[in-house]
Write a structure and sequence with these properties.
By secondary structure, this protein is α/β, with parallel strands linked by helices. The chain has a domain of 194 residues: Rossmann fold (3-Layer(aba) Sandwich), CATH 3.40.50.1100. The strands form three sheets. The protein has a six-stranded mixed β-sheet, with helices on both faces. Helix 3 packs across helix 4 and helix 8 packs across helix 9. It is globular and about 75 Å long.
């Protein structure tokens, strides 16, 4: 049961239902639950979707279910051993209904919108959140408007349109900074009587609560706590939400220690990385974001991600885009998993993390695969076109065997 809403910086108590930042210090608001509710995590609730954890979520009504959650945790077969890791695991969030971890947040969004008697849902998204929120809005019978940055991967746009969203390209939707974006989203949502469902804790403090269920599942699947969790980080919600989940599990007595949290950003879009390296208390909005990795190409990250790094004893690592794209290819060929480029970032960072002494070979490590490969489907695109343009082999055993041997 939700007890109250508190600022993570000054402990200001805001009224339940408040949106945006703390009115006292501009910190990030966080839901807090009664001890009795947290203790129920020790029972390892069974059921389907994130609704089985409703006792530690900020809604009282059933959460729409499309198959979200319960994603597989797969031990690496080749990349881990090649790096001398015997306990490297991949949490494959691309198996969610719309293909990304944001389905966990979107399911909660739909319930929050229904509970608020909103007539629809409004969000701004680079792609994955748009697809997820559109799908769950449709499931809940709600209208959906997506404000989209022009030039994003068309596969993500098609997903939102296929599930009935009204998609409005807005030039520079993320370029004016989070404060201006918040004001615009809240203003538009109020005029339409839509629920403001931007998936970023500084704007909507409740949405992280659906994402934190990733931590519950990992501990249940491992039957242990990871030593290190490595995540791709854009705005920082998936990263901070998992840290929140692990802390709740510790509070419930399910685990007796906490993992170190490691964030991976592109060197071409590194707001969290720059703040960590400089020892800053807050993350500044960058004047640029030039990464080719669409899922983490953002100029701002929330301070909640920086807090998770520091509180857990973790670190932030930067990688070049091409290293992530090469690792995306390797994950497909060596592990049989087609992931989006952002998902490949944590695995791409492993070699330098080992070299820097951030992780040890004997540790239990979980890399987060945030979304499925079709989300940003450039991998093997040229090869596929080349195959389709080739002269077909004649219907003959010997001809087929000869061609196969040349591969």
């Amino acid at each position: 049961m939700l007890a109250d809403l508190r600022c993570s910086t000054c402990d200001y108590r805001a009224s339940i239902g408040s949106l945006g930042r703390c009115p006292n210090c501009a910190g990030i608001l966080q839901p807090h639950y009664e001890d009795e509710s947290i203790q129920r995590l020790a029972t390892r609730p069974r059921g389907s979707g994130i609704d089985r954890y409703r006792f530690v979520l900020p809604v009282s009504i059933p959460i729409p279910y499309l198959g979200e959650g319960d994603t597989p945790l797969i031990q690496s077969r080749r990349i881990g051993p090649a790096l001398d890791f015997n306990q490297l695991h991949f949490k494959v969030e691309g198996r969610n209904p719309s293909g990304a971890f944001k389905d966990r947040a979107a399911a909660l969004v739909a319930a929050l919108a229904l509970e608020a008697n909103a007539s629809g849902v409004l969000t701004a998204s680079s792609g994955n959140a748009a697809a997820a929120i559109s799908a769950y809005s449709a499931a809940a019978g709600l209208k959906c408007v997506i404000l989209l940055e022009p030039g994003n991967p068309p596969n993500k746009l098609r997903q939102a349109l296929a599930t009935g969203a009204q998609v409005l390209p807005v030039k520079g939707i993320f370029a004016n900074g989070p404060a201006v974006l918040q004001e615009m989203i809240f203003d538009v949502a109020q005029r339409l009587n839509y629920y403001p469902a931007f998936i970023w804790a500084p704007l909507n403090p409740y949405i992280l609560e659906g994402i934190k269920t990733i931590s519950y599942e990992i501990v249940d699947q491992l039957d242990a706590v990871p030593d290190a969790v490595i995540c791709p980080v854009g705005g920082g919600d998936m990263f901070a939400a998992q840290w929140r989940g692990y802390r709740e599990l510790q509070r419930a007595g399910v685990i007796d220690r906490l993992p170190r949290m490691f964030a991976v950003q592109s060197n071409s879009a590194p707001p969290l990385l720059e703040a960590f390296r400089s020892g800053a208390d807050h993350i500044s909005t960058l004047p640029y974001a030039n990464s080719k990795i669409s899922g983490i190409n953002v100029p701002f990250t929330g301070d909640h991600a920086l807090a998770a790094v520091n509180e857990s004893g973790g670190a932030v690592v930067g990688i070049d885009d091409e290293v992530a794209f090469e690792m995306q290819r390797r994950i497909g060929v060596e592990e049989g998993l087609w992931v989006e480029p952002a998902s490949a970032a944590p695995v791409a960072a492993l070699a330098q993390m080992i070299e820097q002494g951030l992780i040890k070979h004997e540790e239990r490590v979980v890399c987060m695969f945030s979304g499925a490969g079709y989300k940003d489907a450039h991998l093997a695109e040229d090869k596929a076109q080349a195959v389709m343009q080739r002269e077909p082999i004649k219907f003959d055993v010997h001809a087929i065997v000869e061609q196969a041997r040349q591969a």
